[in-house]
Amino acid sequence: MNLIDRLTNDMKEAMKAREKARLSVIRMLKTSLHNESIKTGNQLSDEEALAVLTRELKQRKDSLQEFENAGRHDLVDEVSFEIAIVQSYLPEQLSEDDVQSIVDETISEVGAVSKADIGKVMKAIMPKVKGRADGSLINRLVRGKLN
């Protein structure tokens, strides 16, 4: 079952169970996917849909940080709930140790030795961990290795 079908089924279940908050988040995800489909002019592949969900997750994490800094605990709880739902549709995230081993492997593959090679390393790593690791974590680990 592809991601869009799964979202549709979960939306129906949330309607039946009268879970308004969950239903709202699922509708938002479906809308984002639909808008991206219109923008690209074709049906989204699973990889493209995954990229959209990853972007939605990143937006919510950024919002969460801002709300925490502003002391808006009412909104922190709401955004945390949204993050949990979005993450349930993403593949299981890699641990930091797994990401570190992928970073080490890719650095040796690319032959990177200095900060100037960060772009090459990031370009080689991102397809390997697509949707399974946060880009900021990868960037931090790569910078730590190449410094």
Kindly list the characteristics that best describe this protein:
147 residues, mainly alpha, Arc Repressor Mutant, subunit A, 0% strand
Concise synopsis of the structure shown:
Helix content is about 75%, strand content about 0%. It is mostly helical and about 150 residues long.
Description:
- This protein has about 150 residues and is an all-alpha fold.
- It folds into 2 domains: about 5-90, Hypothetical Protein Yqey, Chain: A, domain1; about 95-145, Arc Repressor Mutant, subunit A (Orthogonal Bundle).
- The protein contains 7 helices and no strands.
- The chain starts with a helix and ends with a helix.
Present the secondary structure layout.
Layout: H1 3-16, H2 20-40, H3 46-70, H4 73-88, H5 96-110, H6 118-125, H7 135-146
Helix pairs in contact: 1-2, 2-3, 2-4, 3-4, 5-6, 5-7, 6-7
Which overall shape is indicated by the principal axes computed on the Cα atoms? globular
Biggest sheet, open or closed, and with what strands and sense? none
How much of the sequence lies in strands comes to under 5%
Radius of gyration: 18 Å
Overall mean pLDDT: 90
Tally of DSSP helical segments = 7
Number of structurally distinct domains? 2
Provide the CATH top-level class of the largest domain: Mainly Alpha
Helix content: over 70%
Number of separate strands? 0
At the fourth CATH level, what is the homologous superfamily of the largest domain? Uncharacterised protein YqeY/AIM41, N-terminal domain
> Poorly predicted ranges (pLDDT <50, ≥5 residues)?
none
InterPro entries: Asn/Gln_tRNA_amidoTrase-B-like, GatB_Yqey_C_2, YqeY/Aim41, YqeY/Aim41_N
Pfam families: YqeY
